[in-house]
Amino acid sequence: MNLLIKNGHIIDPADNREGIADILIQDGRIMQVDQNIPVSPDVELIDATGQLVVPGLIDMHTHLREPGYEYKETIQTGTMSAAAGGFTTVCCMPNTKPVNDSQSVTEFILHKACTEGVVNVLPVGAITKGCNGDEITEMGELKKAGCIAVSDDGKPVMNSLVMRRALEYAKMFKLPVISHCEDLSLSKDGVINEGRISTELGLMGIPNASEDVMVSRDIALAELTGGHIHIAHVSTRGTVDLILRAKENGINVTSETCPHYLVLTDDAVRGYNTNTKMKPPLRTWKDVEAVRKGLHDGTIDAIATDHAPHSQEEKEREFDYAPFGIVGLETALPLIFRLVEEGVLTLRELVLLMSLNPARILGIDKGNLVIGATADITVINPNTTWVVETVNLKSKSKNTPFEGWKMRGKVSYTIVGGRVVYRNGR
Amino acid sequence: MELNSKDLLEIKELSGDEINYILDTAVSFKEVTGRDIKKVPTLRGKTVVNLFFEPSTRTRTSFELAAKRLSADVINFSVSTSSVTKGETLLDTARNIEAMRSDFIVIRHPASGAPHILAKNLRSSVINAGDGAHEHPTQALLDMFTIKEKKGRIEGLKIAIIGDIAHSRVARSNIYGLTKLGAEVRLVGPPALIPMDIESLGVSVFYNLEDALKDVDVIMVLRLQLERQGINYFPTTREYAWLYSINTERVRLAKDDVMIMHPGPINRGIEISPEVADGLSSVILEQVTNGIAVRMAVLYLLSGYGERVV
């Protein structure tokens, strides 16, 4: 079925286009972007009057949990959650069981994504075998099988020589190395940000320095090797400074942050809600301000969710024993919409950060609405207000700190390769 | 005045008036514990469960005696920490206990915030008997009771708390309570054992013990967790004792009528010298005695909440 999206407010930074127009989709590709494209009976019509039409959102940091942790999430439920959140592409992290450190696991994920998934799934392979930090993986084979980046996400590569070799090796295949920056000896038993709140709650703290130290190391290694380092989930003001300086010096560094680091502080941990426990931890307002500024001035290139589903049983524990991580695919867009409403970001920046820039970092031909492009498109009603209720989440897991939050802006259609995979409410 | 709460989780959530109300109530219970027949029928037919996930003799016994002197039935339920990480969750354990119709659950747990999970999910009154490095409210109440009993007041007193503040729930509860009642609180210890931004709670921080002890009315010595040595909080107990041990000479820096407190158990010769622990200024054993009266008061006041609701 061909599609005609009519009268939407199109935002396409790749083509420098912003304004009302129609988009005609044929055979899964964008055929025409123009004013007043005539309606014809063999075309399904989407009336996008008063709505935003943007290139499909790309989440470069998702945990789909399959294989191995299907009780938390599957490729099916995770991609349904993505579709509901307006994401047409997700990049799934390799810390599954078994770890995605080989062609066979990558192929399994892609096969599942093809048969059960509803959005594009691009696997991220491991940097080291088993994510153990010791021996680098066969990155050539991973790339050939379909991996678009490498990462040991969830764990840092603590051995600096291993990280050096990984950056050198990945460079050959133009694979970005996505680094979870955490000095484990500094974060140790920490479960929340180290500061006033950790002191008050009697919880062990993770200092900003645990992130800053590793970002500093990774930037030095990127400079040494010429490899592409991508700093995952930036949470501290120190990291923002370090990346800014590295970029000024022409080092091949890109970075992402997550919605929760833009709207929450460690204050949210009061009351010991384990859905406020993630790594890196929620920081202070000073950090939030610096990260917001970094997004606006281009220091931080992308917004990713770090969607990290965990079951209710796992999260309904003592704070110290609950696993790190929160779901994020279905709340990311409205949270970033908040920042647009507050004047922190423009709509164009939102599209850059959530679609075009991730595509550029990963070197994939997505994130645009040019003629001939695969029709991955998100239609958003900016005026719909709704309340986050965990029962309505498509994700198998419900570990969100945003339950009960009033949101503005909701996805009305998610279109992947010309097919509508999500309609508001369904 | 009443204590309008089902649970006692934190001193932080109490007002100064509420703290004083508990302390005043404890005065009459102390009279009971001094009698020949140390028992009143106040909580007859009620069940108190001591749910301890950490070894403790003193606190558990104190709660047990407090409950028994109020004529409640007491069950002690010790859970080894090894079974905490696998198998039954805390909430499941507690729900099973409540299914046996408990009225009070007294919980001691190595994880901060664990009592809050129970309080949120159970009908029973939950009393925090120490959670991780967070709070130990009844210890602070008995400390404040002891100070008030000896000094007649808390307001305006200079009180030094010495040792591992970072990992101490006793310190946190005392900081909240003593500052609410108007004391000047000084914290003393090496930087690694002083948690970040603690000054925001209205206390001052000293690394030098001699400076901190000048003119204080109360010296509160914390137990040094010996296992902290060697993971670089401090190099050796030898050097710690040299810098921070409370000995006769150092006590002289304080006011003449200074009182010496310690929540126990004591590491003699490390954080406190035997002469001081056993000396005339020491109230360490009185703290233990007062603990029962204070816990009786807490059980009694919380039992009132249930009756009002029913």
How is the topology of this model organized?
The complex is a heterodimer of chains A (426) and B (310).
Chain A: E1 2-12, E2 17-26, E3 29-34, E4 43-47, E5 52-55, E6 57-62, H1 75-84, E7 87-92, H2 103-116, E8 120-125, H3 139-145, E9 149-151, H4 160-172, E10 177-179, H5 184-187, E11 192-193, H6 196-201, E12 205-206, H7 208-225, E13 229-231, H8 237-248, E14 253-257, H9 260-263, H10 285-296, E15 302-303, H11 312-315, H12 332-341, H13 347-362, E16 377-387, E17 406-416, E18 419-423
Parallel strand pairs in A: 1-4, 1-5, 6-7, 7-8, 8-9, 9-10, 10-13, 11-12, 13-14, 14-15
Antiparallel strand pairs in A: 1-2, 2-3, 5-16, 16-17, 17-18
Chain B: H1 16-33, E1 47-52, H2 58-69, E2 73-78, H3 82-85, H4 90-99, E3 104-109, H5 114-121, E4 125-131, H6 137-151, E5 158-162, H7 169-180, E6 184-188, E7 204-206, H8 209-213, E8 218-221, H9 237-244, H10 248-251, E9 259-261, H11 274-277, H12 284-309
Parallel strand pairs in B: 1-2, 1-3, 3-4, 5-6, 5-8, 6-7, 8-9
Secondary-structure element order of chain B, N to C: HEHEHHEHEHEHEEHEHHEHH
Q: Mean pLDDT of chain A, rounded to whole units?
A: 97
Give start-end ranges of low-pLDDT stretches of chain B.
none
Kindly state the number of beta strands of chain A.
18
**How big a fraction of the residues of chain B is strand?**
5-15%
Distance between the termini of chain A: 19 Å
Q: How would you name the oligomeric state of the polypeptide chains in this document?
A: heterodimer
Shape of chain A: globular
Structural class of chain B: alpha/beta
Quantity of strands of chain B, as a count: 9
The percentage helix of chain A is 25-40%
Biggest sheet of chain A, in brief? 8 strands, mixed
Q: Most extensive chain contact?
A: A-B, 20 and 27 residues
Q: What low-confidence regions of chain A span 5 or more consecutive residues with pLDDT below 50?
A: none
